[in-house]
């Protein structure tokens, strides 16, 4: 919440002022200046919070809850609060009738002096070109009245703030909490800082925008909207989050042009969402021809390599473990018939490679700007589904990215969606593998009928095998690979990113242990579900296996029939 951030800022400033023996005051636009006496009674503890709340009838119900912690802190720590808002009656009169609708007394108190050019410079507030499609320039009586109301507010508030500065003494600090429209462009704008700087030129002013909802990209020579843009966890940074000068330096050092980059990266740069480190990682990856082709041609590879430059290392380690343990298990099972049944070996090995690829691919953390670059017209239902999928992380343990604020619900949804994806992979790959095995069996029978005639074969139940294996991948394998990719290889390994050998060894050890544990779980599940006989013992090499290699167990009944063939 913004109010929580305001409270933290006031607390820190109070602490520093106490260390330097300076006074601190707080001016708040939320309180009209005619309620100053009520505020003083509240600060003196002669008026309780509920009574003060009763006088703020123009506030929405939730506003008191938002302001109460800050007000209580100021009261308990002796911080003076100045009500700097203009009375509601005055504001509404100007909005409806203009300055001429005010009484002479109110006009003298709140309106700028006659002939002061109160709307001069107002056209420069936007600092934007008039052809900006996102900027509206209204005309007519209502817009002119709104302009008058804005100027009256700025003038009246500036007078109150100037008096508060004088009352606070030469060394005092005044914190003003007001809307962004009153302080934008600082002393070079037309709001409070500009009006105050004309009266107290020796006073330093700093303008901070807290969690700005919308920013325009500042062009060369334009006045900055504020001195600081303060983003917090209350609202994630979603625009202009990184120093564009540093981005330009990285681009120039690499000798690259923006229009040569992928479209999503260009859009991310335009919005200020690409950090200098991510851009440098992208240029480093381009030094390798194969990786360069992958990052430019395939969105998925680019997203994963930007989030984890060592993604291909993880994939290679997993596939190496998969292929090695699969071939060892196949050889021990088939013995002297290994080369004669090479077609079956290849079928199971290819299935293992495909499944292992997806067990690494799907839970891997990603860094995507596709949601910002994708403007294609799609049906509402598809757009809603895309929006849902893009709102959750690919890995439940992935760190929050720029423009993202993933909570526990998003992370639980990531596990569920990842499980559905892996279940689909397991189901389809299992059907494909068993179907391929049956096709090979039919081809063998066609080529050599004599070998098959007297055999009693028992084919695997395709749908049952696929359903159980898909469920296994979607639950056990999904959780294990989410933890490996998100915690071990994303969070822990990032702390030792400079030690490549250590990181790769850690990945290899963890994935090997995971393969062994996954195989044991699959064997237990296969026996429990009846896919594998309780009497059959797995080969010793098969204990070093991954979920995809454990898919060999999916064909247990198939392999049993093959063993019967071999025995005959």
From TrEMBL:
<keyword id="KW-0809">Transit peptide</keyword>
<keyword id="KW-0472">Membrane</keyword>
<dbReference type="Pfam" id="PF04187">
    <property type="entry name" value="Cofac_haem_bdg"/>
</dbReference>
<keyword id="KW-0150">Chloroplast</keyword>
<dbReference type="InterPro" id="IPR007314">
    <property type="entry name" value="Cofac_haem-bd_dom"/>
</dbReference>
<keyword id="KW-0934">Plastid</keyword>
<dbReference type="InterPro" id="IPR021825">
    <property type="entry name" value="RETICULATA-related"/>
</dbReference>
<keyword id="KW-1133">Transmembrane helix</keyword>
<keyword id="KW-0812">Transmembrane</keyword>
<dbReference type="Pfam" id="PF11891">
    <property type="entry name" value="RETICULATA-like"/>
</dbReference>
<dbReference type="GO" id="GO:0031969">
    <property type="term" value="C:chloroplast membrane"/>
</dbReference>
<feature type="domain" description="Haem-binding uptake Tiki superfamily ChaN">
    <location>
        <begin position="3"/>
        <end position="196"/>
    </location>
</feature>
<comment type="similarity">
    <text>Belongs to the RETICULATA family.</text>
</comment>
<protein>
    <recommendedName>
        <fullName>Haem-binding uptake Tiki superfamily ChaN domain-containing protein</fullName>
    </recommendedName>
</protein>
């Amino acid at each position: 919440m913004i109010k929580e951030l305001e409270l933290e800022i006031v607390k820190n400033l109070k602490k520093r002022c106490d260390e330097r023996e300076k006074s601190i005051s707080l001016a708040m636009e939320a309180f009209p200046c005619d309620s100053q006496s009520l505020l003083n009674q509240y600060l003196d503890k002669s008026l309780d919070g509920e009574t003060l709340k009763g006088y703020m009838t123009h506030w929405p119900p939730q506003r008191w809850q938002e302001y109460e912690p800050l007000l209580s802190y100021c009261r308990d720590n002796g911080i003076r609060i100045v009500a700097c808002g203009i009375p509601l009656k005055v504001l509404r009169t100007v909005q409806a009738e203009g300055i001429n609708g005010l009484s002479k007394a109110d006009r003298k108190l709140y309106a700028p002096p006659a002939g002061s050019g109160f709307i001069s410079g107002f056209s420069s507030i936007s600092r934007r070109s008039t052809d900006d499609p996102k900027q509206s320039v209204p005309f007519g009586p209502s817009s002119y009245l709104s302009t008058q109301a804005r100027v009256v507010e700025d003038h009246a508030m500036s007078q109150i703030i100037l008096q508060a500065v004088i009352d606070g003494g030469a060394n005092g600090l005044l914190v003003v909490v007001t809307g962004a429209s009153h302080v934008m462009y600082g002393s070079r704008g037309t709001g409070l800082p500009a009006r105050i700087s004309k009266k107290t030129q020796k006073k330093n002013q700093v303008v901070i925008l807290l969690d700005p909802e919308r920013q325009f990209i500042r062009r060369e020579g334009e006045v900055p909207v504020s001195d600081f843009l303060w983003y917090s966890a209350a609202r994630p940074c979603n625009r202009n989050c990184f120093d564009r000068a540093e981005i330009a330096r990285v681009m120039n050092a690499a000798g690259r042009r923006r229009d040569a980059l992928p479209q999503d990266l260009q859009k991310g740069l335009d919005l200020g969402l690409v950090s200098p480190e991510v851009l440098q990682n992208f240029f480093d990856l381009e030094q390798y021809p194969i990786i360069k082709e992958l990052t430019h041609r395939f969105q998925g590879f680019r997203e994963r390599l930007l989030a984890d430059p060592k993604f291909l290392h993880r994939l290679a380690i997993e596939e190496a473990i998969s292929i090695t343990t699969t071939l060892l298990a196949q050889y021990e099972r088939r013995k002297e018939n290994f080369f004669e049944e090479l077609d079956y070996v290849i079928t199971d090995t290819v299935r293992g490679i495909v499944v292992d690829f997806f067990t690494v691919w799907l839970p891997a953390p990603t860094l995507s700007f596709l949601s910002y670059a994708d403007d294609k017209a799609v049906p509402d239902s598809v757009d809603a589904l895309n929006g849902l999928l893009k709102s959750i992380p690919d890995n439940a343990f992935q760190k929050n990215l720029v423009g993202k604020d993933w909570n526990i619900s998003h992370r639980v949804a990531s596990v569920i969606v990842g499980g559905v994806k892996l279940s689909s992979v397991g189901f389809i790959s299992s059907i494909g593998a068993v179907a391929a095995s049956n096709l090979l069996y039919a081809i063998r029978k066609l080529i050599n009928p004599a070998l098959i005639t007297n055999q009693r074969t028992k084919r695997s139940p395709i749908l049952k095998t696929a359903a159980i294996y898909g469920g296994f991948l979607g639950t056990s394998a999904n959780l294990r690979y989410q933890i490996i990719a998100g915690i071990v290889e994303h969070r822990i390994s990032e702390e030792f990113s400079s030690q490549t050998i250590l990181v790769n060894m850690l990945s290899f050890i963890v994935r090997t242990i995971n393969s062994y544990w996954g195989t044991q779980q699959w064997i237990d599940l296969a026996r429990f579900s009846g896919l594998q006989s309780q009497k059959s013992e797995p080969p010793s090499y098969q204990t070093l296996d991954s979920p995809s290699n454990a898919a060999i167990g999916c064909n247990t009944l198939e392999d049993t029939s093959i063993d019967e063939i071999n025995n005959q």
